[in-house]
Amino acid sequence: MHRLPYWRLSSFYLFYFSLLGATAPFLALYFDHLGFSSARIGELLAIPMLMRCLAPNLWGWLGDRSGRRLAIVRLGALGTLACFAGIFLSHDYLWLALVMASHAFFWHAVLPQFEVITLAHLREQAARYSQIRLWGSIGFILTVIGLGQLFERFSLDVYPGVLLGIMAGILVSSLWVPNAQPEARGAVEGEGGFLAQLRRPGVPAFYLSVVLMQLGHGPYYTFLSLHLESLGYVRGLIGQLWALGVVAEVLLFLVMNRLLTRFSLRQVLLASFLLAALRWLLLGNLAEYLAVLLFAQLLHAATFGSFHAAAIHFVQGSFGARQQGQGQALYAATAGIGGALGALYAGYSWSSLGPAWTFAIASLTALAAAVIIANRLPRSASREPRP
Q1: How far is CA 323 from CA 25, 106, 192, 327, in A?
Q2: What is the pTM for the complete model shown?
């Protein structure tokens, strides 16, 4: 068994998801601070998701073709930092839209390629993926708690500088990571290329369910912080509530190896969607009750934690070594499509339909995904990824 660069890989996830922890709860608050309407906020937050539909597939194809995945990760980290620095030049809507699009083009190059590198380092230890990925959750937790406290004391005007500091951390950590390539294996008879593997039973259904899961997260990632502020929660507590969800995710990652040996990927995905449907209903209708809100945030262990871990394993088990980058990129892209549609519908429905109906739509999309997984994903969906 080869030596695993555990801390080098983990440090990258820590910084990468620290950036998500800085943007998911607070970016809408920042745009609200700049005076934009809910529709404009939804549009600005949808732009990175739309870019996520395009960029990962381009970078994934380039990574699989060239094999230079780590170079793509480093280029993506540098491009993210350079493009986002443009936020200091103007707060005009069109300029901010350009900043959001350009930095997202590079940011979404990073994670799918790094996932392939991580799994290549893990080799026969693939079940340890969750133990590395949990450091991303820890980075998210530290960031949302820290920034929640920071923004209770200081203006949101300091927010862009904080984001640039985290982006610099992503770049530096990428320079510390050693490269690795997926192990070559003999061609499996009838396997075919990427498109042939994509048409296998259950694979299209899986990717459709990814779109629906992220569509359901639209109001959560776009307006949860504003929703909780309107209910009287202070920013420090809002940050802690975001962190609670990710703490639950971390605890889930610690036992995910055992769950995947006991339950099939189909069962884990189905449970994730059903619990997501419940979570969105609670957030839309009963968030003013702290006990209910705490329970709903604990369900993040299912709506992101178990779903993401099972999805990564499903993708790895569904594509050959030379198609891994494209498979992970398509996962990111379909998540981007769902996230963009979710941010857009939430932006337009928030002021017209209200939080309860906006979250109810999210709940219905999760139920639709559960039906698709129950009926289209083979019952024999592997508990373990391919060797």
Answers
A1: 34, 21, 10, 6
A2: 0.79
